[in-house]
Specification:
- This protein has 2 domains: 235 residues, Type I PLP-dependent aspartate aminotransferase-like (Major domain) (Aspartate Aminotransferase, domain 2, 3-Layer(aba) Sandwich), CATH 3.40.640; 120 residues, Aspartate Aminotransferase, domain 1.
- Helices cover 39% and strands 14% of the residues.
- A hairpin with a 2-residue loop joins strand 10 and strand 11.
- The mean pLDDT is 97.
- The chain binds pyridoxal-5'-phosphate.
- The site of pyridoxal-5'-phosphate has 15 residues, from helix 3 and helix 4.
């Protein structure tokens, strides 16, 4: 059996007639930027989350930058976030001129550990960016309490968590603003780049709208130093099709995850911990073992694709050498980076394939010799 870590072939086949119709609509209309498809998708995505405002942009990275800039965060400010994440998200903080300040993760959830956040707060701290990593909501209750206590803004990085819930509330509705990515592999993915800022504040939404379009208040009147970061009509139309399938896709991801959980319980790998009161959406299904590299090689040789999210935490990236975090600065994030392995999980994965993957993983604990 050959099971790729990810594939779009099955997804495209499943959705093809709807996608073709959406793309034809855009081509026939001949309106490609800031048009009716985007307006409709923004309304539908906002309604999906039960929020008043959603503003499309070119990527999740831009969505984070735009949200922080709309909140007035920039040079001289510090933003607390987790080191085990996509470096892009942290770069977006840096792009505003603010400095990312890392805080170690809770090794069970892989999310920002609120108990360590207070110690990292300085007079320059202006915001916290929790990342709902792998599709599991961060401990928002504790983080929002801290934000309240220290008068900090909160921008949720929801790039991996479309539709996930914290105490019954969708993520993206809990902070001052939230950023979503529509990178193709995400739970809600475009067939190109895309992102969205979601907020309850009309003022923030208006500012993001202006910033994403060159900072213009009217055509050729650039009042702000803006970006060129629009969600194009083709991607908005495609995303509109896919949004209608998001809940069923997330339900399938959860079913696959619970199958993996059951098949891998008692095996040599640690399966994902789910915090109380959260409903994860399993953007990734991440197991953990000190024999990670050997397990990945073994699975590869048995036709199973895997990936590591993430082999190098953001504070150890070359681009952040100047921040001065040495090895060991965040032991939990660094240990996770050495031990986590993402197994295939996508709605089109069959039950038979899930069982096959789990059986291969189980062989690790059952005396199959694996060369490290
Ligand atoms: C947690 C996280 N934050 C931010 C991003 C950036 O999103 P994008 O690739 O759409 O810029 C990603 C995706 O790569 C991500 O997984």
């Amino acid at each position: 059996m050959r099971i790729p870590f990810n594939t779009f072939e099955r997804q495209v086949a499943r959705l093809r007639p709807e996608i073709d119709a959406a793309m034809a609509r855009v081509l026939d209309r001949g309106w490609f930027i800031l048009g009716p498809e985007l307006e409709r998708f923004e309304e539908e995505f906002a309604a999906y989350l039960g929020m008043p405002h959603a503003v499309g942009c070119n990527s999740g990275t831009d969505a984070i930058e735009l949200a922080f800039r709309a909140l007035g965060i920039g040079p001289g400010d510090e933003v607390i976030t987790a080191p085990l994440t996509a470096a892009f998200g942290v770069f977006a903080i840096s792009a505003t001129g603010a400095t990312p300040v890392f805080v170690d993760i809770d090794p069970r959830t892989y999310n920002l550990d609120p108990d360590r956040v207070a110690a990292a707060i300085t007079p320059r701290t202006r915001a916290i960016m929790p990342v709902h990593l792998y599709g599991q909501p961060a401990d928002m209750g504790s983080l929002l309490e801290l934000a309240d206590q220290y008068d900090l803004r909160v921008v949720e990085d929801c790039a991996q968590a479309h539709g996930a819930r914290y105490r019954g509330q969708p993520v993206g509705t809990l902070g001052d603003a939230a950023a979503f990515s529509f990178y193709p592999t995400k739970n809600l993915g475009a067939y190109g780049d895309g992102g969205m800022v979601v907020t309850a504040s009309e003022a923030i939404a208006e500012r993001v709208k202006r910033l994403r379009n060159g900072g213009q208040s009217a055509r050729y009147a650039h009042d702000l130093l803006g970006l060129n970061s629009r969600l194009d009509e083709m991607q908005a139309a495609i995303l509109g099709v896919k949004l209608a399938h998001l809940d069923e896709d997330n339900a399938r991801r959860r079913a696959i995850a619970s199958r993996y959980d059951a098949l891998l319980s008692g095996s040599a790998v640690v399966t994902p911990y789910v915090a109380p009161d959260v409903e994860p959406v399993y953007h990734l299904y991440v197991v953990r073992t000190p024999n990670r590299d050997a397990l990945a090689a073994y699975l590869h040789s048995h036709g199973v694709g895997t990936m590591v999210h993430y082999p190098t935490p953001a504070h150890r990236q070359g681009a952040y050498a100047g921040l001065g975090y040495g090895p060991g600065a965040f032991p939990q994030a660094e240990a996770a980076a050495r031990e986590v392995l993402s197994l295939p999980i996508y709605p089109e994965l069959t039950d038979e394939e899930v069982v096959y993957v789990a059986l291969q993983v189980q062989s690790l604990g059952e005396g199959v010799t694996i060369e490290s």
